[in-house]
Design a protein that fits this description.
The protein is α+β, with helices and mostly antiparallel strands. The protein is 23% helix and 40% strand. It has helices at 16-24, 49-52, 112-115, 180-211, and strands spanning 3-7, 9-10, 27-34, 37-44, 59-64, 67-78, 85-92, 99-108, 119-122, 126-131, 140-143, 152-154, 164-165, 172-177.
Length: 212
Amino acid sequence: MKTIVLKGDARTGTGKKASKAMRNEGKVPCVVYGKSGTQHFGVYEYDFKNLVYTPNTYLVQLNLDGGPVLAKMQDIQFHPVSEAIIHVDFLEIDPNEPLTIDIPVELTGNAPGVRAGGKLMLKIKKLLIKALIKDIPDTFKISVDKLQIGQNIKVGDVNFDGVELLDTKSNSIVSCMVTRASMSASSDEEGGEASGESGGEEGEKTESEAEG
């Protein structure tokens, strides 16, 4: 999966006063937890744009004074009013150990149910998985080519090589919902068939009466 690089500047203090001074410089106070210990640093808030404000999921290479650290974003805090990023926690990861992370779902193909007037409803936008980094794709592609109106694809219906899905198997990932348009079309078809049958019966009666 893809990795974003962030440059971190070492923090000389970890208290409220030091954090406020860092924010005044346009930086976000950060911390990374890992086998090599805990490191405190700051990253310019603008640099988080491609990591935070996106539907995609990325790993992070933190370029710190002690060297690069491969990590994932563990937690992020926003200001309740301005929504500015005020703190970020990272967790160091080992490429040789399974990683638990959310990966986006990407729908592919054309659902017959949509062509019949239904509407696709994506209920799980990201799947929680556990796998080695080398086996984790950027997105999980799920085909809807066979999805009819009223049907859904559940977590238990899909599988990916080398990946363990952690969401409940009975949870629906995507479904093809009934819409007013599809209900109206169905009603029109039933009405047309009923009208045709009724017309035939009346025609037979009229012919019988003519013979009589």
